[in-house]
Amino acid sequence: MLNDSVEKTSTAEIARIIKTLKSKKSAGFDSVSNFIVKKFPPSYIECLANCFNTWLNECHYPDDWKIAKIITLNKLKSGIPKCEQTRPISLLATHSKLFEKVLLLRIRHWAETDRLVPPEQSGFRPRGLLRTRVLSIYQEVKNNMAANIPTLALYVDYQQAYGRV
């Protein structure tokens, strides 16, 4: 992909991405929320498109957008939580989220066009549901049992993985 040129973005594409954002008022370190971004005038979106196109061309990602504002949330309904009863979330700059979505669209297109993602994969794809994978695993086990073929399965429980990282 290094020799391929990356498709430029447009004001229309950025406007579509902005419309998909939830109108939340929480903001990253830059204090700009999705709610504010949805109020941007067309001239600002045009400026964003110019910046995004420059960075796409230069393979550049602004360093300031790599900084997250971390907030600790209480898992309990009330009371003062113990350390294990909290979970941190990272709030990135909304501009960063917009640029990431532009990049994601290009990476998805590249991966699908070059057939890098196997048809069996549900993750990474839009509308790739876990239920689809569970049903296909169930069907494979059922077919193997009918044919008296052993089936190897590996189960991993990630329920509390984040707290132990």
UniProtKB/TrEMBL annotation:
Organism this protein belongs to: Rotaria socialis
Record-linked InterPro entries: DNA/RNA_pol_sf, RdDP_mobile_element
Protein name: Reverse transcriptase domain-containing protein
